[in-house]
Amino acid sequence: MGETWATLGVDLHLETGAEATRHGVRRGLTDALREAVRGGRLAPGTRLPSSRSLAVDLGIARNTVADAYADLVAEGWLTARQGSGTRVAERVIAPPVRPAPSRRKGGAPTYDLTPGSPDLASFPRAEWLKAARRAMAAAPNDAFGYADPRGRVELRSALAGYLARARGVHADPDRVVVTAGFVHALAVLGRVLRARGLREVTVESYGLDIHWNLLHRAGLRTVPLAFDELGTDVSALGPASPKAVLLTPAHQFPMGVPLHPDRRAAAVGWARRAGGVILEDDYDGEFRYDRQPVGALQGLDPEHVVYLGTASKSLAPGLRLGWMVLPSGLYEEVLGEKDAVGASCGALDQLTLAEFITSGAYDRHVRAARLRYRRRRDQLVAALTTHAPTVRATGIAAGLHAVLELPPGTERSIVQAANWERLAVHGLARFRHPLMGDRGRDALVVGYGTPADHAWAGAVEALCRVLP
């Protein structure tokens, strides 16, 4: 019963005196006691001095001590029982939290030539900010409420007009659904297809494993189609084929060729005859450098093609903005599944993108980006001609990446050499469907959109050093 603060072996240094407020003293005492318990200086079960004794020891008001004790009892650090006094709670004292070890700076690549990202340094910050201010000023009150699973009507209307004009998409605002990027859209579609009874989806033999894995998680097996110089070979699609196929017809990823016109017609013809659906991933269809971009496949048959687009390549993946243009037969099912999955994107970002498009800023940005990426691709091809004449860039002049054909059997060693040069680059094997085995040619998939302008020349020089 005679405990004092001194006998507990804990020093408390509180700000007291005329200038100290009661609230400040209480807070200081509460913090000091909490840290003494947390750090193990006050062991579980230790009885604390009475509020009267501690107040005398510290020269503060008894009510201040009582309030500090009550705060810590409420937080679970102390217990207080009639006749037993105030004690440190019986609890496991967590060890001090140490910061997670940081990655060694030396391990980060000096140059990143992996595909999939635009030049983030070129994001149009000033124009985006202007659009955001205009969108915020004009935003209706309901923009701050719960989200419509279809997305904001302002963005759906802007996208319908833009996609019809720029990509030949047959788009009505009531058929457009805004998503949190392409991956979100594919996850929703995978669940819808599985709910319809599908067990398999046909895919291209080269692509992204993240997309295949999404379909696998939805319960769908992926079956690859063969690939040749005319693009993905859709002749294997028939009455017994899975009733859905995922394609990148404008610019096959990563091989970099468009789907041949005869094969475009054949794919649409299969979908009509078999009652199937084509999932068209138009990830970079706006970036064609040698001619006008090939129009979207969806324009040939809007009732059998789901058009999928994204702002990830044209603006930035961090916006998490994508869109689907749906056939009427899928619309309600997709909306219901999207509402269940959630992950809607913010209304203000949607309104900003709508303003960015309707004001013409999006078109201006795409034109400027197209010129920048075309110049980079031309510089890459010229550097190969001079410094690595045995390596050639294949595919059309389009997109944000190029495929560099390598001598047989050299892909793995060149990727390893690039790593030693602190150059991040992927071999073509990384994008080959597992069911295709090791069949295929040796190549690098070089993302020339990723580096900032000031780093591009150095990245090309580093790449040429590791090429044969």
Folded structure, characterized:
Helices cover 39% and strands 14% of the residues. The chain has 468 residues and is α/β, with parallel strands linked by helices. The chain has 3 domains: 1-98, Arc Repressor Mutant, subunit A (Orthogonal Bundle); 111-116 and 369-466, Aspartate Aminotransferase, domain 1; 121-363, 3-Layer(aba) Sandwich (Aspartate Aminotransferase, domain 2), CATH 3.40.640. A 5-stranded mixed β-sheet has the order 4-12-11-10-9, sandwiched between helices. Strand 13 (392-394) and strand 14 (401-405) form a beta hairpin. The longest helix is centred in the C-terminal third of the chain and has 27 residues, at 361-387. The chain is elongated. The model has no long low-confidence stretch (mean pLDDT 90).
- CATH level-four homologous superfamily name of the largest domain: Type I PLP-dependent aspartate aminotransferase-like (Major domain)
In what range is the share of β-strand residues?
Answer: 5-15%
Question: Which sequence of strands runs across the widest sheet?
Answer: 4-12-11-10-9
Number of domains: 3
What level of helicity do the residues show?
25-40%
**Which CATH architecture of the largest domain would you pick?**
3-Layer(aba) Sandwich
Provide the succession of SSEs: HHHEEEHHEHEHEEEEHEEEHHHEEHEEEH
- The shape is elongated
What's the number of helices? 13
Name the structural class.
alpha/beta
Name the average pLDDT. Answer: 90
Low-confidence stretches: none
Rg on CA atoms, Å: 31 Å
State the name of the first-level CATH class of the largest domain: Alpha Beta
CATH topology call of the largest domain: Aspartate Aminotransferase, domain 2
Number of strands: 17
Give the distance, in angstroms, between the N- and C-terminal Cα atoms.
84 Å
Largest β-sheet summary = 5 strands, mixed
